[in-house]
Design brief:
The structure is a single chain. The chain has 165 residues and is mainly α. The protein has one domain (16-154). The protein is built from 7 helices and no strands. The two termini are 25 Å apart.
């Protein structure tokens, strides 16, 4: 085995993303995703609060999306951030146990979350059906942003850990 291949194999075997770092990466990915989505929905005429209202409506019911007060927006943002942390932990677990790869795992997780949220959850949960009205490109792009930013932040944590070792 050449030394270059051995180095790559050693690096993959040593790759470990701390779960706290995975949670932080997911949170930063979720914040970035929310900011991008809110800017785009604002530019599309849907209003900057469309995304948090839709998410808040999952917990508070579809009628909450229409009334959409501060409580609905805050609930939506809180739910989104909690899910982002949870999916950051899932990302770290997948990287550590299955793939040992940061970037492709992040992109794949983003796409998988979009598909599950918009097609599986939306099909069985009446309150989630309204999410299927979001433009397809916007939904896919926002979830790719989550996966990409989560991977970027995670790669910084891994790089620092390797430099310190």
């Amino acid at each position: 085995m050449s030394s270059h291949i051995r180095e790559q194999t050693d690096t993959l075997e040593k790759l470990r993303l701390d779960y706290v770092h995975g949670a932080i990466a997911g949170l930063i990915g979720g914040i970035t995703m929310a900011m991008v989505t809110m800017m785009l929905t604002g530019m599309m005429g849907m209003g900057i609060w469309a995304m948090p209202k839709m998410i808040g409506g999952l917990a508070l019911g579809p009628q909450a999306v229409m009334t959409g007060g501060v409580a609905v927006i805050v609930a939506g943002l809180m739910i989104h951030m909690m899910l982002s942390v949870m999916f950051g932990l899932v990302y770290a677990m997948i990287v550590n146990v299955v793939t040992r790869e940061l970037w492709l795992t992040g992109l794949t997780l983003g796409i998988a979350l979009w598909l599950v949220n918009f097609y599986a959850v939306g099909a069985v949960w009446p309150a989630a059906a309204m999410m299927q009205k979001e433009p397809l490109a916007l939904a896919a792009l926002s979830h790719l942003v989550f996966g990409t930013v989560t991977a970027l932040v995670a790669s910084r944590f891994v790089r620092r850990a390797h430099a310190a070792a």
